[in-house]
Amino acid sequence: MKYILLVAFCVLSFSASAQWYRVDLKIFKHERLPQIAQIKDHSMARIPHAALNTKIKIRKIQLDRSEYSDDAAIYFAIQKAQHSMRFHMNSDASYNFSELAHLYIQQNKLTEAKWYLLQSNYISRQQNDHKHTISNLIDLAMIKAELGDFVLARQDLSEAQYLASTKGFSNDLPEIDRKMSFLKQNKPWPVTVEQGYSPATLNITKIE
């Protein structure tokens, strides 16, 4: 039986020396259809598409600040100020207080803004940060003018003018002169004053 199987395998199998290049491989190829053969460009650009000749301009929309965003900004500013005070980073705390003051000015809460500017100014004087002291004095002067205390407002501007002249910050003199002229006209700062301190001001220890 095994001899019969051996003969059968020999008859059905190909010889190892068979010459495959003589086999016509065309029989394995599919016939290309005439319509497909006529297409020379096979890129995606040949597919019909709508061309937009006009450019669409997207208009920028500026959203107004909400009460929630203002409160959130004040909360994070207070957290930074508390962190600076806890680790005795007085220079950073001075700028944190000024940031808080500007946030309260945006909310027309000038009493709170004045309190934080006084704290910031106290530290900036100790740190000999004259540039920051000048900026605080200008803001304090305008707040005091709006609160009706024009005498102290002029004193703050006079001190800011002196520091700018003696400490080499002459670039601040034009702005100080404009504020002085504004006060001479006896015109209050055009914002609404809301009396009373915010509860947030009690979260930071006052500097003695």
What key phrases describe this protein's structure?
single chain, 208 residues, mainly alpha, 8 helices, elongated
Distance from first to last alpha carbon: 115 Å
Q: Give the total of beta strands.
A: 0
Which stretches of 5+ consecutive residues score pLDDT under 50? 189-208
- Give the count of helical stretches: 8
Portion of residues within helices? 55-70%
Radius of gyration over all CA atoms, rounded: 41 Å
Element pattern in H and E: HHHHHHHH
Question: Could you explain how this protein is built, in words?
Answer:
There is one protein chain. The chain has 208 residues and is mostly helical. Among the domains are: 64 residues, no CATH class; 56 residues, no CATH class. Helix content is 56%, strand content 0%. It contains eight helices and no strands. α6 packs antiparallel against α7 and α7 runs antiparallel to α8. The longest helix has 20 residues. The chain is elongated and about 125 Å long. The C terminus is likely disordered.
Could you provide a short overview of the structure?
The protein is mainly alpha-helical and 208 residues long.
Write the layout of secondary structure elements.
Layout: H1 2-12, H2 34-38, H3 67-86, H4 90-106, H5 110-126, H6 130-146, H7 150-166, H8 173-184
Helix pairs in contact: 3-4, 4-5, 5-6, 6-7, 7-8
